[in-house]
Amino acid sequence: MCLTGVQKHYGSLHVLRDIDLEVDRGEVIVVIGPSGAGKSTLCRAINRLETIDEGEIAIDGQPLPQEGKALARLRADVGMVFQSFNLFAHKTILENVTLGPIKVRKKSKADAEKRARELLDRVGVGHQADKYPAQLSGGQQQRVAIARALAMEPKVMLFDEPTSALDPEMIKEVLDVMVDLAERGMTMIVVTHEMGFARTAANRVVFMADGAIVEQADPETFFTNPESDRAKDFLSKILKH
Amino acid sequence: MELFWEHREAIALAFAYTVLLFLFAGIGSMVLGTVLAAMRVGPIPVLRWAGTLYVHLVRNTPLVIVIIFFRIAAPKIDLKFNFVDVVIPTGVGDVRLNNIFTACVVGLTIYTAAFVCEALRSGVNAVPLGQAEAARAIGLPFSGVMTQVVLPQAFRATIPPLANVQIALLKNTTVAGALGVAEAFVRMRLLIKNNPAELWTLFIGFALIFVILVEVLSFISHRLERRVRVS
């Protein structure tokens, strides 16, 4: 995946400044930075939930389509996990996971359900398949959301602060699933404040501030020896406690 | 009371027209209103604009004028409904669905659809944005986002206001009476004319039948609300 010269403005606010980013297959990128840095916007721009003003985003060499069927196809290949889970409230857990495969991938109901149950078992919520999202804890809902994205067999997974809305004890169960996913070779872009996850699972840390990528390095280098003052300042604030 | 018993067949026939006007316009307005709502919340500016124009034009026009348009003005520009002529024989006389009946159904449908659209749109707005985003993120096209995720949830929030709109429609069918469909209101006027002494009985009797019909609608609406609340 390749982003070149991406710019976005909200009115006078320049939320993405000249973003260049290349992500290889199987790579796990963790995007960190202070709030308002444009991390989430970047994540959402990659599957075009946000439009961009300038620049190009390409996946597998294919530039991002503007609208319509082609864009929908691209989105099917890009899994997205939201901060607020966004499970379909009127559908059961199983239906949440099978909706995309049946309606978009045109799989048979039986095949989709078989695969969905495997994925739900893998993220540890297989026994909840017939419940509705509201009956599950936040951590369970987020693991279902990951299973829902995986059911589409995406080329890349985007995580937009997947643990920020969770109680501390539920964060681990979600991160465990993500680490497992990373170890299986999934290409991942993760916006997070979980520095532990960045250290264990990331191939590369991308540090953003004020809409721009300030610095990128492997996690060891970044956390022990950051180059930019902005990153040093940020790390000193979050790592002291 | 004897009066009602004596004329029971004519009254039943009249209410058959009322109910048929309601059923056809009810289904038509739900379909058209859903399409309009989809246009108004959709991503295509021209359709959004057209949907908004429709609602503002039709909602701000009195029902009588909308129906008169289809009943009287439209035939002048060759928009006639002469191709419709269905006769349903019943034991107590024929129910005839002709061009006049159709013009009234079309008028009621057009008018009510604007309100259905707005009721649905309020429901759509009540569905959190994240639901639509998640649906788009798994690759559903706009139509799929609406039919699979947004509208099913919007309908839940919309049942009470939609019931309101449909109840209003049931009562609005009486306007068709003024334009030549022999529905309940026409029968009531006729009976009053021939039996002026029974004015009050007739008024209250016909009103009661309408109350009962509306109660049936309210009952269905309540059942629907209860059913979707469980899940």
Layout of helices and strands, plus pairs?
The complex is a heterodimer of chains A (241) and B (231).
Chain A: E1 2-10, E2 13-22, E3 28-32, H1 39-46, E4 54-59, E5 62-63, H2 68-77, E6 78-81, H3 93-103, H4 109-122, H5 138-150, E7 156-160, H6 168-183, E8 187-191, H7 195-201, E9 204-209, E10 212-217, H8 219-224, H9 229-239
Parallel strand pairs in A: 3-8, 3-9, 6-7, 7-8
Antiparallel strand pairs in A: 1-2, 1-4, 4-5, 9-10
Helix pairs in contact in A: 3-4, 3-5, 4-5, 5-6
Chain B: H1 2-6, H2 8-41, H3 45-59, H4 63-76, E1 86-90, E2 93-97, H5 99-126, H6 129-137, H7 142-172, H8 174-178, H9 184-194, H10 199-230
Antiparallel strand pairs in B: 1-2
Helix pairs in contact in B: 2-3, 2-5, 2-7, 2-9, 3-5, 4-5, 5-7, 6-7, 7-10, 9-10
Write structural notes for this entry.
The complex is a heterodimer of chains A (241) and B (231). Chain A is an alpha/beta fold and 241 residues long. Helix content of chain A is 40%, strand content 24%. Chain A contains nine helices and ten strands. In chain A, strand 4 and strand 5 form a beta hairpin. Chain A is globular, with a radius of gyration of 18 Å. Chain A starts with a strand and ends with a helix. Chain B has 231 residues and is mainly alpha-helical. Chain B has a single domain (18-182), classed as Orthogonal Bundle (MetI-like fold), CATH 1.10.3720.10. Chain B is 80% helix and 4% strand. Chain B has ten helices and two strands; from the N terminus they run ααααββαααααα. Chain B has helices at 2-6, 8-41, 45-59, 63-76, 99-126, 129-137, 142-172, 174-178, 184-194, 199-230, and strands at 86-90, 93-97. A two-stranded antiparallel ribbon of chain B has the order 1-2. The radius of gyration of chain B is 20 Å and the shape is globular. The model of chain B has no long low-confidence stretch (mean pLDDT 88). Classes of the chains: A alpha/beta (241), B mainly alpha (231). The interface between A and B is medium-sized, with 30 and 20 residues.
